[in-house]
Amino acid sequence: MVSPVLILAIGLGTAFALGLLSQARKSFLFLVTLAALALMAAISLGWVVALATGAAMTAEIHTAGVAPPFAINLRVGLAEAALLATISLAGLFSALSMREPLLRLGRGAMAVLLVLVMAISGLVMTRDLFNLFVFIELIAIATAGVVLLSQDQRAICAGFKYLVVSQIIAILMLIGIIFTYHATGSLNIDDIVATPVAFHGAALAIFLLLIALVVELKPFPANGWALDIYTSAHPGFSALFSAATGSAALFAVDKVATYAGDAWLPLLTGIGLLSFVGSNIVALRQENDRRLLGYSSVGQLGLVLAVIGQRDVLGDAYLYIAGGLILSHAVAKAGLFWMSAIVRGRTLTDWAAIRARAPMVLAFATFIAMLVGLPPFPGFYAKWDLAQALVAAGRLPILSLILLGVLIESAYLFRWFGYAIKREAVEKGLLANTVDCGITLAAVAGGWALGWIWGVAHGEFNVLATLPVLAVVAFLLLEPLPAKVKNVLAIAALLGWFAMVVGGYDPMRLIFAAVMIPGGAVILIASFTETGRRIGFYPSAMAMYAGLALLLEATTFFEFFAAWEIMTLGSYFLILRGRMSEPHALSYMLFSLGGAFALLAGFAIASGGVQPFPLDQLGTVAADLAPYVFVLLAVGFMTKTAAMGLHIWLPGAHAEAETDVSPMVSGILLKAGLFGLFLMLMQLGRQSLWGVDLTYVLVWIGAISAFLGAVLAIFQEDAKRLLAYSSISQMGYALFGIALMNHLGWLMAMMFVINHYVYKSMLFLAVGGVYKRTHTKLMYKMGGLITLMPFTFVSVLVGIIAMSGVPPLSGFGGRWIFYNAIMDAGLRLPLILIFMAGPIGFLYLFRLIHTIFLGQLKDPHRKLKEAPAWLVAPQMIFVAFLIGFAVLPGMALQKVDGYIGSIFGDQPLVWSGRAIASEFGYWNPVAIMVVIIVVFVSVFLILLAKNHDAQKVKQFNIVFSAERPYRPETTHFAWNFFAPYRKAMGFLETPVVSTFWGGVTDGINGVGDFTRRFYNGNGQSYAIHVVLFVVAVYLIAMGGVA
Amino acid sequence: MAQIALATGFVLILAGLYGALTNRDILRMIVAFTIADTGVNIVLVAVGYLPGRTAPILDAAVPVAEAGQRIIDPVPQALVLTAIVIGLGITALMLAYAYRLFRLRHSLDISTFTELKW
Amino acid sequence: MIRHVVVALLVALLGIAFWTLTAGYLPDAELNRTAAYYAAHAQDEVGAPNIVTGIIVTWRGLDTLGEVTVLFLTSAVIALVLTQSKTPAGATGAGFLPSGELLTTGTRMIVPLIVLLGAYVIMNGHLTPGGGFQGGAILASGALLTLLAEPTRRFGHSVIARVESASGLTYVLVGLAGMMIAGGFLDNGILPLGRFGAMLSAGAIPLISVLIGLKVGAEFSSILESLHETEDA
Asked: Is A1024's CB within 8 Å of C169's CB?
């Protein structure tokens, strides 16, 4: 191994040497610069590998041949080496990104860049306080120089503002350093730690030093100067400024915090949290991409600062957590800045241009997932461990603030991603450039590699090493193949996985697995209708299925949570594919993340920081904590099942999704929430908080969801929205059943898992087929399609019979068990609600079949054909299954019944042959089927016999009083179909919940908009902000520490 | 003695900061910062001062053996040299920037350079 | 006006913080351990009677390398700042009044003396007050005087740049040599310490002083030159 001091020597030596080379041969000069940076990167990567594998010990470098504290010394341990590698790689790629101005301005500019990278590296390595100052000043001056590479004239103003603030930082820092020296007689950080502090002004000295370093991190709100740099500098430099300078400054804070002592940590935490939450709120109102990235950088640095402030409770995990967050931030932010060079426009919507290049979309998605901390990236592992440690230390408020910040950050990041995928792309919005694309992809590769490393280092569970996630990666690589080939592979993958795992599951998991995995394969049959390559669909879909598969496999909290997040991410990308789904996908993502954070907190409280914590030990959680765990987990799971109050994301997300995606997210994805609820209730059982039985609350939520979901469904004009609201209602039933906490309730919920999957998938496919032919989802624009689309009609007919719970199909079985369950539970009031939901459900189902298939055929629809065969095929499979399941429910349910019996210790149902008996009566599906068939056949025969009495009416045998109505659709019978009901129950339609959530988002946005007026653009005001910030923190700190 | 030097340094720092934060003219801001820098440098050397001792140079007046008892602390003197040079570098840089800003807008009023905000 | 009041208040609050530092300040009675170490080992470790120079060049040599780099950066950045707004060629200096006889003649007489003094200060940096920085600054003042006396005069940019680069590169190489043949980066022990108090003693310190002096002189000159060229005719 070569000495790391060479990193400094190479950077500096090359910078000096450039002056000796001919100014004219600029390409050669640039190559020399790149070579130097590459060499620096190679040395630091070599150290990373050596230190990580144990081949080398932490390097202590003494300068001047004298041991510290008498001469300056440098240190390179694993953390330093990793940062050095990040810094020099960022420098190398940023140099490539800035090739144009560097070549234009020549060796001076290249030398400044080299010195900048050298100085940032030095800041990481040095163990001497004053040397720290020298490197910081070098960075400041070099920054002021590199900012000028921008073509943007405004960069000059930004550079000056930056210099003004640098002066203030320098003044504070020097005073801090000299008084620290006076107090301790040393400038060496490690030496200061070892010496007891004698002089009482030392606290103030430490404060000045710390606050100077903190200001260097551009904390909110004293950071206008830094934001201006982000906005106006060359993106290559902004990448370096955010990724390298920011990380190194954080490391400097960490070094000083080491000797400052734990008393200062709360202050750092406070500043960090303020910065994280505050700048994310302000970022919500940003439309300029680079300024947004600036705000996000400030936020991320604040987050890590808060983590530094929590180092006293993080223990051994400190480096893992802080490192994961810093590296995620560095790679993702640098990648985004480099990427911004290929987008011509500067508003967020201009990023729609990147859609033309699939790898860039992947890059964008990767970076956003890294910033938000989603698997498989390091931030995810870090977030999990952080939550565990914080909860174990009883610092729940800090965790909540962090999660709030992450949520706000994800709001604007995913909104931005939505713009990129869905907004109109301007022509020539993309600056085609191989180099910029190349370095962006290098960052992507780096991000995935880090994800792998963090997964390995986590020890418990490496997301990227699981078969389902590897399959997702494989599908990413298979993107160039045609869609049909990929579809075959996807179906094969799902079935193969199911065959592999099916043996090991208990009956309950088996039912969920059957619905999720082969169930998914059946829906994928419909995807054969798609032609072309269908870029983006398969990785997203497979990510969702991977999440579901892992969810069933999960044995610990962490595995469960990781699976949950993968599933969420995959389904978000799937939903976003819909034509009009941009806002809905966003609200889906935000609700899902919010729910996931509730899970995270719930799991952390339950495990108390013990890791790995087995999922089946959830029941052992202490009695005083159990109700809170219950509430958090229930909220998390109910977000997924879209219980009333947390439901507003569902209608849009399900209705606007693509034809084959709607059944996936409705028929399959919702079950994940039910699965979670099952697991939770199985372990925690009944819990009371403040004297309220929480399962009783769930019963109510279930009943209200079932009722209101149905009410809202009947007023929809859009067929897919109707089905979506119906899902809310159906999930309400299932929730109700689970929350009854008795054998039959659970059995009924299991029945719903199967039934709802089948008929909702079928109906969504059917309506999707109709939509494909008619190009509308509005029911009043359809009618009379029965003769044109007979198969679709059949599947809708069977679907609604099954769903409405009338005999003979399996829905009736569900209802039958259900009524038995209610009788068991003895809850009267919610029972009335849920009973009422039944007939209301019938109303919307009737409307569905009546409006679409019966009545008058519309003129534009006369030549319609049946839906594509690939869409019909899975529907027919479902039809066959429903009829079979109606006759033989025992095949699936008897085992589950026995399994549930083993949980509750009772056996209320008696299975004899094909009949099932309970204490309230018995159900013989075969007999019912026979009766129904007999009744229907006889009625049908009678009608057939009387057919000649009927009179044929021509279609236009009606008159509108010779007037053409102003809005013709209002005269259609299907328009406002249930007007009388609307009069009676319309008040239930008031969007109370939407108004509430709308108010929340408007409020936060308003705060952001108000706060950003604070950044008035005046460099002097920014300087005053900095001083104000310092004084304010001083007053607070002196209150707290002294 | 040391307190007087310290107080002088701090007064200069505060005066410089006040000037830099209230004067809108960029050149005046720069001058104010140099005053503050000077104050910092005075504070630095003041901290190294020990009453009744001499400069840290070993010559006929200060034999090597007695150095520990005769000289003042040399470290702040070394630091202040670096600090002076850095301050000078930044001042020069700010002046160059001021020149560019002036060429840009023909004004040296910092409140006119506010295109970047929010 | 509000701004003035707010700033005054802030500065006053900051003043309170500084006041506590001043009021609580007690000068050390004895050298602290770092300073005591330097006092005790100036002779045997660095061999420089001027302890400050010993600290600057050797013990805290990395700071000094950084310091030299600060000036290098400043001159490079100033050149960058100003390249984009140079006055058009030909117009430069046309509007200057000729400098007076006194200045011109004085310059001719004094500049060689200034250079001599600079060289002296540089070479004796390890023995008496002074050193590379001080000497370099003195050298640059000679350049300043020349520019004042002859506003139209141009130094050879490339010569300055070469001196600057070569001395900087040599400085780094000397530092690396310390790592290879002596105790570490920037160790002055690559050359014999010699007789304590002699001109050619203290190992590499005189050499480094010369390099620093050349570099600082060149950098200051280059900064002055760049600023000078901006003058509007």
From this structure: no
In this prediction, residue A394 has a pLDDT band, given cuts at 50, 70 and 90, of confident
Give the contacts of B101 (CB within 8 A, at least 6 positions apart).
A156, A157, A160, B26, B108, B113
Q: Locate the chain C residue with the closest alpha carbon to A186.
A: C34
Q: Which of A780, A654, A774, A669 is nearest to A720 (CA)?
A: A654
Task: List the chains bordering chain B where 3 or more Cβ pairs fall under 8 Å.
Answer: A, C
Q: Which residues pair with C176 in a beta bridge?
A: none
Band (A780; pLDDT cuts 50, 70, 90)? confident
Closest CA to A417 of A586, A537, A535: A586
| Assigned domain for C23 exists | no
Short-list C71, C46, C39, CA closest to C186: C46
With an 8 Å Cβ cutoff, is B12 touching chain A? no
Interface ipTM: 0.96
pLDDT, tens digit (0-9, with 9 covering 90-100), for B56-80: 887 777 777 777 788 888 889 889 9
Cis bond before residue A69 (omega within 30° of 0): yes
Q: Residue A794 — φ and ψ, nearest 5°?
A: -60, -45
A981 lies within 8 A of chain C by CB: no
**Is B56 inside a domain boundary?**
no
**Which residue segment(s) compose the domain that B97 sits in?**
2-51+68-112
d(CA A327, CA A304): 11
For A666-725, how does the pLDDT look when each residue is reduced to its tens digit (9 = 90+)? 888 889 999 999 888 888 777 778 877 888 888 889 888 988 888 888 888 888 888 899
Q: Position A38: which residue type? A: A
Half-sphere exposure of A367 (CA within 13 A, CB side): 27
Residue B88 lies in a domain: yes
Q: How confident is the model at residue C233 (pLDDT cuts 50, 70, 90)?
A: very low
Q: Give pLDDT, residue A1042.
A: 47
The total of structural domains in chain C comes to 1
Burial A780-819 (b: 16+ CB within 10 A, else e): bbbbbbbebbebbbbbbebbbbbbbbbbbbbbbbbbbbbb
CB < 8 Å to A157, chain B: 101, 113-116
Average pLDDT over residues A882-906: 76
Residues of A with CB below 8 A from B86's CB? 134, 137, 170
Q: Looking at the domain assignment, is residue B58 inside a domain?
A: no
User: Could you tell me which chain B residue has the CA closest to the CA of C14?
Assistant: B14
Residue of C3, C11, C13 to mutate for B, most B C-beta atoms under 10 A: C11
Q: Do A70 and C35 touch (CB under 8 A)?
A: no
Is C139 contained in some domain? Answer: yes
For B116, which of A134, A158, A1020 is closest by C-beta distance?
Answer: A158
| CB spacing of C70 vs B64 below 8 angstroms | no
Return the pLDDT at A955.
58
pTM: 0.90
Q: What is the CATH number of the domain that holds B75?
A: 1.10.287.3510
Residues of chain C in contact with residue A76, where contact means CB-CB under 8 angstroms, are: none
What is the pLDDT, as a whole number, of residue A18? 87
* Minimal-distance CA residue of chain C relative to B17: C11
Residue C175 lies in a domain: yes
pLDDT digits (tens, 9 = 90+) for A419-476: 998 888 888 888 878 888 999 999 999 999 999 999 898 888 888 888 888 899 999 8
Residue A74, beta-bridge partner list: A61, A126
Question: C3 vs A71: CB contact, 8 Å cut-off?
Answer: no
Residues A860 and A852: their CA atoms lie apart, in Å, by: 14
Answer whether A28's CB lies under 8 Å from A134's CB.
Answer: no
- Locate tokens 């994310």: which residue? A280
Residue A613 is predicted with a pLDDT of: 86
pLDDT at A590 over 80: yes
| B74 close to A (CB below 8 A) | no
C22 lies in some domain: no
